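Example record used in the benchmark description.
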Amino acid sequence: GSSGINAEYGGARYTHIMAQNQIQELSAELKPNMDTLKTSLHTLMKSAGVTFTQNSAVDSVTTKPIPDVAVPSFERSLEEFSHNCDALLYELKQRRQALILAQYSMIMPCDPKMNYNQYKSLAKSHDGRVKELEGILTRLNSELSHDGDKTMGT
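Model output (structure tokens):
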């Protein structure tokens, strides 16, 4: 009765704590990627501002300002920002796949007190999980090699 409910609640609480820990670890691991992305976004916006100012000066027939040497061209900034977005996306896809694999790889151990029918059912369950895991790995390999070709080509 109540011990089963407590065990379920305890398991849910444990799962929630594990999820929080995984999110904190993921945040810490992705912080360098996010910092790089923020910096490249800042540079992109600065380049866009300089380009906008130069273009508006040309349109108003005023003297053309000297370009800010410290700010890379808008095209270069946009390319760098896009590359950093792709790198972060790739990292997130890898993390998502790792979490999916971890979820599917949790196989229940056999209890020595099981009867044959329970054991047979558990063995079938394990076989099904292994087949699902194999499908996930195949799809992951395909996605990563396909995505890698796209990002390497740009």
